[in-house]
Design goal:
With 272 residues, this protein is mainly α. The chain is built from ten helices and no strands.
Length: 272
């Protein structure tokens, strides 16, 4: 049986491990930064997706529905002219003139006498309409992961910011095309991982966490303002009519336009 014995006057205490420096605020800051980073990545993906949707939607909208809008304007002008011919009133003539002006606006005489600008302009080919207005879920997942790992705002050194900026520009291009294979290749290419962060349990880590949280909150406010601006534009308001399925929205708009064209056509035939 063993028994405890007191230390003699010449005996020393056993050495103990040094106490590691800790800041009671660090765990809370860590949790807040993790939550803010998740919100930031989601907001970045949402805003970039919305920007791509609006660009693609505007292009497809113009190519698919533009001719129907032109037909509606033409029918409106013909109807107004038919009414003016039957009534002969000054008000109907004014309305007919306005309707025709919408379809065939008056030329810019100053530009006309300066030279034939239209003939001098080079023909610019119309970009090809995308297959999808919104990138699919796999493209969004890859874009989210690459933004989390390689975003230039995660770096501080100018050279690293530049390198990341060039890389993310390639990521944005692939995401705008909805090119999953290209995004997968870019994800494989990015082998350096995340930016350096100070070691946990150090004063530098706490300072970094405070600065990181401040930047994330500022970035989230900026992204919120950008999203509101995009949604508030003409195409944004149109897209918000069916935000969950922008591709289906075009079909809905096309059906509405076809109905309007048929109604205008019947009205014109009745007048004639």
């Amino acid at each position: 049986m063993t028994t405890d014995r007191g230390r003699g006057p010449g005996e020393l205490d056993e050495p103990t491990a040094p106490v590691r420096w800790t800041d009671p605020e660090e765990p809370e800051l860590e949790a807040r930064v993790v939550r803010a980073e998740a919100e930031w990545v989601d907001a970045e993906v949402a805003v970039e997706t919305l920007r791509i949707e609006l660009d693609n939607f505007a292009l497809v909208h113009h190519q698919r529905l533009g001719p129907m809008y032109v037909r509606l304007d033409e029918l409106d002008a013909l109807i107004a002219e038919a009414r003016a011919a039957r009534s002969g009133s000054a008000e109907d003539l004014r309305r007919a003139y306005e309707a025709r002006s919408v379809l065939e606006p008056m030329p810019d005489l100053a530009a006309f006498f300066e030279g034939d600008a239209a003939a001098a302009e080079e023909a610019v080919p119309m970009p090809q309409a995308p297959d999808r207005i919104r990138p699919d879920r796999e493209a969004q997942r890859l874009f989210r992961e690459l933004a989390r790992r390689a975003h230039p705002d995660l770096a501080q050194e100018p050279e690293e910011v530049r390198r990341r900026g060039e890389f993310i520009a390639r990521v944005n291009e692939a995401y705008a095309r909805g090119d999953v294979l290209a995004l997968e290749a870019l994800a494989q290419e990015w082998a350096d991982g995340d930016t350096f962060r100070p070691e946990a349990g150090t004063p530098e880590r706490v300072v970094w966490l405070r600065q990181r949280l401040e930047w994330l909150e500022s970035r989230l406010r900026s992204l919120g303002a950008t999203r509101a601006e995009l949604e508030g534009g003409p195409m944004g308001q149109l897209l918000m009519l069916l935000p969950d399925d922008p591709d289906a929205l075009l079909e809905v708009l096309a059906e509405q336009l076809l109905t309007s064209v048929a109604e205008r056509q019947s009205e014109l035939e009745a007048l004639l």
